[in-house]
Amino acid sequence: MSRQTEGMVSDTPQYRFQPGQFRDRFRLPASPRGREPIYLCGHTLGLQPLAAADAVEAELERWARLGIAGRFDGPLAWVSYHELLAESLADLVGARPSEVVAMGSPTANLHQMMISFFHPHGDRRRIVIEKGAFSSIRYAAESQLALHGLDPARNLVELPTRRDGLHHEDDVEEYLEHYGDSVALVLWPGVQYATGQVFDLDRIARTAARAGARTGFDLSGAIGNLELALHDAGADFAFWGSEKYLNGGPGAIGGCFVHERHADFHGPRLAGWWGHEPRTRFSMGPEFHPVRGAAGWQLCNPPILALAAVRASLDLFREAGGMRPLRQASLELTGRLARLLREQLDEKVRIITPLEPHRRGCQLSIQFRGEKSAGRVLFERLEAHGVLCDWRQPGIMRAAPVPLYNTDEDVERFVELMVNLINA
C-alpha cells in the first residue's frame, strides 16, 4: 500500500528534504534556448545521476583489468552484485531483502510472475485489470490467458472508470464481492499511468485475498515515487522498471517482489541457472534447486553495467533519508504546481489527477479545455521553449516534478510559460 495517507501528510520526517536538494547530483539535458530545461519527465525517464557514469566506468575498468576474475573478486564481485541492491530496494517497496530482486524488465518479469501465480482452475479463470491499463500489461494478461487456452474476451475483466474519469477501490471491492469466486488474479498498478492516480494497494490486496484471488502489482510508476508497504499489504507479487523515478537509465534493469510466504515456492516457474542456489550453481547439475525467496526467479546472470547505474541512484535515495522525506517534498512540489495551475489557468486546463494528497504522486495529468488540437499545439510550443514532459492520447499532457532534482522554480517557470504561450 501507500503509507502516505491524507492524515499523515503533516508527519515530521527525520529531516526536511528540500525539493531539488540533489539537483547538482544529476545531469540535465541541453536546452534549445540556452537556459536549463524544465525537466518534468521523470515519470517516463529519470535524469542521469552523476554517480551513474562513475559506477558504470568503474565496472568497465574492472572488466578490462580483471577479465573473468571480476566474477569473484572482492566486495563488488559480479556473482553476487545483484545482492548489493536488495536492501535499498526492500526499503523502497516496504519489504524484506529476501522478498526483492533486481532482474529483467517489467513485462518479462510480469510474465515470469504470472507463470507462477496465475493458476486458472474450475470457475476461477479471470484476470482483473483496470480499463485503460498500460498497453503492455493488457498484452501480457491476454497472452497468459491464451496460453491457458482461455478466451481473453471472456476472462479478461477491465473495470471501468466512473464519470470522473477515475477508478475507485470501491468498485474493485464490489466486483470481487459479487464475482470473486471467478477471479484467479487481480493485476493492478500502484499509479495509473495516464491519470497519475495513486491506489490503496493494501486495500486491494486484502480484498482480493478475501475473495480467494491472488494479487500482483505493477510498481513501475510507484517505486521511488510513493511510500510502499508490500510485505504488510500481503501482495503475492509485484514488478517494476527502474528507468522512471529510480533513474536507472533507458531500458534499465527492473525488479520483482515475491512475498515471503512463497519463499519456498513449489509451483510452476520458469527456471534458469542464476535462480539456482549459489553454493552449487556452478556445478551445473541437472536438478534445479532455487534460491529461497525472490532471487529464485532469476534466469541468468544479471547485466552488471545496468545494475551499477541503478545502484548509484539507490545510494541517493538512502542519502536523502528514504521515501518519507522525499514523499513530503513531492507533495509540496506537486501541490504547488496544482495550485498555480488552478489559480492562473483554471479556465484553460483541468487537472485529471486526484488532488487529495494520498491519491496523487509526482505526476499531474493535464487536459486542455476546448479543442484538443490546441493542447497538442501548446505542448509542442512548450517543448520548443525547453519544457520536457510528455503527451498521451487522448489529449493528456503529463508533468512530474521529481523532488530529487526538480525545484519550486521549475514549477513556477513551467506555469509562467504556459500562461504566456496561451495568451500570446
What does this protein look like?
The protein folds into two domains: 122 residues, Aspartate Aminotransferase, domain 1, CATH 3.90.1150.10; 266 residues, Type I PLP-dependent aspartate aminotransferase-like (Major domain) (Aspartate Aminotransferase, domain 2), CATH 3.40.640.10. Helices cover 36% and strands 13% of the residues. It contains 13 helices and 15 strands. The strands form four sheets. A seven-stranded mixed beta sheet has the order 4-10-9-8-7-5-6, sandwiched between helices. β7, α7 and β8 form a beta-alpha-beta unit. α3 runs parallel beside α4. The longest helix has 23 residues. The radius of gyration is 22 Å and the shape is globular.
Briefly say what this structure is:
By secondary structure, the protein is of the alpha/beta class. The chain is built from 13 helices and 15 strands.
Q: CATH fold name of the largest domain, please? A: Aspartate Aminotransferase, domain 2
CATH superfamily of the largest domain: Type I PLP-dependent aspartate aminotransferase-like (Major domain)
Radius of gyration: 22 Å
CATH architecture of the largest domain: 3-Layer(aba) Sandwich
Summarize the helix and strand pattern as letters: EEEHHEHEHHEHEHEHEEHHHEEHEEEH
Roughly what percent helix?
25-40%
Provide mean pLDDT, rounded.
Answer: 94
Outline the low-pLDDT stretches: 1-13
Number of helices: 13
Total count of domains: 2
Distance between the termini: 44 Å
Number of β-strand runs: 15
What's the story with the biggest beta sheet? 7 strands, mixed
Features:
globular; about 425 residues; disordered N terminus; four-stranded antiparallel sheet; 15 strands; seven-stranded mixed sheet; Aspartate Aminotransferase, domain 2; alpha/beta; Aspartate Aminotransferase, domain 1
